[in-house]
Amino acid sequence: MSKRRRLSGLSSILGSQAAYREIDLCYTRRMNAETEIAEVLHTLEARLLDPLVRCSPSEVDRLLSDDFVEFGSSGRVYDKAIMIEALRQDPGFDGPRTIINFKALELSSLVVLVTYRIRETGTLRSSIWRSNGEHWEMVFHQGTCSASG
């Protein structure tokens, strides 16, 4: 094999290794971004579980999108205005609520589904969050009572 051919082969191998490094780097950046988004959404979900935030119409207004919909565990459907007023009158619980088994699944670059359980009640929760370009807003939420707790 000629020296030129060996160098050409080596060049193509190094080129593909560089491509793999670039793919790994892109993957790492994406995973870091997804982790950051998950952490932000975990924080926002925790805020919505805070009784002081729940009873503040301005705080809830900022966290819920204008087209927000919730399917309550009772089967009742809430929109943003109804939810803000209901939480203003009764934040729903006293004491801490601990999020466990939190997962975030990116549905698109601007939309993420989060699921988790509340340790104290066993309630299963799912929310869809959408970025409006400035901050994340909850578009949909559903809480489901769980017999298994």
Question: What does this entry look like structurally?
Answer:
With 149 residues, this protein is of the alpha+beta class. The protein has one domain (3-144): Roll (Nuclear Transport Factor 2, Chain: A), CATH 3.10.450. 46% of the residues lie in helices and 31% in strands. The protein is built from 4 helices and 6 strands, in the order αααββαββββ. It has a 6-stranded mixed sheet with strand order 2-1-6-5-4-3. The protein is globular, with a radius of gyration of 23 Å. The termini are far apart. The relative contact order is 0.14. The mean pLDDT is 82. InterPro entries: DUF4440, NTF2-like_dom_sf. It holds the Pfam family DUF4440.
